[in-house]
Amino acid sequence: MDTLEPTAPAATAEAVIEVRDLCIGFGGRPVLRGFDLTVRRGENMMVLGRSGSGKSVLIKCLVGLLRPDSGSIRILGQDVLALDQEALDRLRVRIGFLFQSSALYDSMTVRENLEFPLRRHALARKPAERDARVREALANVGLEHSADLYPAELSGGMRRRIGLARTLVLAPEIVLYDEPTSGLDPITAREIVELILGLQRKYRTSSVIISHDLHVARLAANRIAVLIDGRNHAEGTYDELRAMSDPQIQRFFTSL
Ligand SMILES: Nc1ncnc2c1ncn2[C@@H]1O[C@H](COP(=O)(O)OP(=O)(O)O)[C@@H](O)[C@H]1O
Ligand SMILES: [Mg+2]
After folding, report:
1. Which of 38, 39, 61, 146 to pair with 174, CA 20 to 30 A apart?
2. Which is it for strands 70-75 and 15-26: parallel, antiparallel or unpaired?
3. What mean pLDDT do residues 223-229 have?
């Protein structure tokens, strides 16, 4: 089996993320203008959009870091915009968020970086349990021997993997990836895509992958939503989008 092939979600898979008519702007300038998105359990959904189109803003709305002006967001059956801080924190534990920069703590070892989210959320409190979680997360990114290294001792690709491991240590049901391959060379980028696909297959993780990179879209996504002018302009598989005559869609393909 080709390792670079997304796993199809079950035919009956329920929606785990439902975004409806999302609107947000800054200083009177609209960024999202009625954005819709549905992600089903076990699905890798890609949001493709140019730089500055509002992809990171969308992800930040999903995890409650930004508050939209209007619209609705349901995640894992909960109305995100109606949750109080405590309920939002509980939901966030179930959602991994891989930032555009891996944002590791330089003064902490890899192990300490990975233990940090467990301590913050008071999870896996027994040392043996914590060790097991850290070991599994590191194994999942192929870096089981780097627990005692410091971030400065890691390459860019390794740092990205450790950032992903730190997300995985909480065993999230949903992972949001913001530009997971940006700034990486093509081979390392491909390795990150392989990891994303491996996690989808192993844990049935649902993902939103945000990128401007059509190569990532082709390799990693079950479906692709194209974000243009603040809306979900078109949606489909890579092949479906490629077959569309819409010039705004075609522009992504001709720039390859
Ligand atoms: N907190 C913020 N305050 C003001 N403007 C913002 C903020 N966050 C994002 N923006 C603006 O929203 C637009 C979309 O940003 P972003 O979502 O980061 O784009 P990208 O698709 O590249 O991730 C940009 O014009 C950016 O300057
Ligand atoms: Mg961004």
Report:
1. 146
2. antiparallel
3. 97
